[in-house]
Write the structure tokens for this entry.
Amino acid sequence: MTRSFSYLYEETLERIRGKIRRGEYLPGDRLPSISEIQNQFTVGRNTALRIIDELQLQGLATKRKGKGTFLRDVITSSSFDIHGNIATKIQRVIFLSKTINESKSNWSAQIYNGAMKRALALNMAFRMEYQSVAPAHNQSLVLPFQVNPKDGLITQYTADINLLLRETMVRKRFHCVLVDGVFPNVDSVLTDNNYGMALLINHLYEMGHRHVAFAGKFSHPSCVFNATERMEAFVRETEKRDMHGDVLLATTFFDLLKTLRKMPKTSALLFPQDIHATNAARFLESHGVRIPGDISICGFDDYVMNGKPSNLTTVRIDLEGLGKAAVDLLIEIAKSGDTLMFWKRVKPRLIIRKSVKKMRR
């Protein structure tokens, strides 16, 4: 997926700010030049120029004619204050759903229920709001609601939520936690993808599989971060167990089938999401491949499609746990006053079904 200019700018800016926070650049040090930013972070010249300008506007850097851009000798805490004046205690939690229909889906409803239970257990007010999209202007909008410094926002990552997140962080100036996704300057609650992949690979190993593959190009645009983490964890976990692990670059089921026919030793195929694993299994079976007789298939997330039971061995994301953790994270970041970004992880669990067979020794 091609990243937008805006996303590249925000991501790169935050990475440089992170280096400053960690002391990799000290007061008085020369910061990377425009060409160095381009090379180090793989961005264009306009993006690099904008980053240099923004670091100066934030009071972090100063230009010296003929010498370059340098980190200021004195940096105030306000230079890193991306949230504004946040109250030290969150009193109301606002759960933002993209549409009314989405809020009723099994996935969103479980996250919502987890957040609501935690908030009410802590005697915090809780309410639902809806994000909508205005096609004529291609703008994300929030239905009007009152916001004060003691409000905290919980939302899920969607493809068109970027502008909304910028609006809430820059204009509303209150804490926001993103569930199951990442965005520059926004605290996140995420599934522990490393732990989940370790569960899957360990199960395959115990079932006698030694040649396995990961379909790395199959992921929804809004789930690229999770898919990438799962792929990287797949590589690490197979190496730990001295298994032969291949990352496949096929982007269609036809290409996937062709690739698998050239890999007769591969006995198990993993996908970063259940929806692609389920669809792949149907496609392969329609072309004479028996699941799990000829090849075992695993997913990751335990997403229920159209209310139908699944035969897929997978990793179940703790959706209610994500919602509860999001409320806890709102409280933690408000109390700490720390402007560094928080990522909180929630462990999933292995679900064993009929899509993996035991290999003969």
User: Anything to note?
Assistant: The first strand starts at residue 61 and ends at 64. The chain has three domains: 5-80, 92-190+322-346, 193-316. The CA atoms of residues 74 and 233 lie 41 Å apart.
